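A quick aside before the break. I want you to see a complete sequence-to-structure record at least once, exactly as it would be stored in a machine-readable document. Don't worry about memorizing anything.
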Amino acid sequence: MTGGPDDPPRVPLPADLERLLHDLRGPLNAAVMHLEVLKRLQGDDPTARASMASIQGELERMAAMLPLAFSVTALEIAATDSVSLRGVVDSSVDDGARKRLVVDEGGWPQVDGDERLLRLAITQILRNALEAGGDDGSVHVRVEDRADDMVTLVVRDAGPGFKHRNPSAAVRLMASTKPGHAGIGLLIAQRVARLHGGALGIETQPSGAVVRFSIRARRAVR
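That is the input. The structure line, written in tokens, reads:
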């Protein structure tokens, strides 16, 4: 599956995960071959034809999902340093998009983390929010310090909110309905948050969707 222009770059897999992916593709390819044989033998039964088509569609989805799942799993912290969370927000979108960001001017914390991964995660969150609001919708960004030594980046968009009754259902493989998009941005953000001792939370409110990206803080304010 080819990603869209705004999809994250595919993460090169380490040798062990590449081998696992190869091993999983073996039985998947075998299932596709046997399905083709069954399709030739099924006759004119419409129920059988519909079932075969459904099986083929699911196998194709699985073939597309496997490399995406492994790409997210391959994300690991390479090095940690003191990182300016505000600096990461400012550098995660281009100049044109930055005009639509309404960033809180309060005290912003430093965090201990992998700056490359944090920028990757926050880029995905901000791009999703900017896209949800259309061409003119603004995105509000603020930070919350918590008593448990965590810090939460709160991103609120101006879109219609998540369509799912349970918004967390959007954090799954190929959740996007946009043609050509892999739909793994929120999965990447969730993985990065967990690698930094935190979590990703999402909710729908009357004024738009809210994403909360929580990680461990280094100190209260810079």
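Two observations worth writing down. Confidence is low (pLDDT under 50) at residues 1-5. Residues 38 and 52 are 8 Å apart (CA to CA). We'll return to this after the break.
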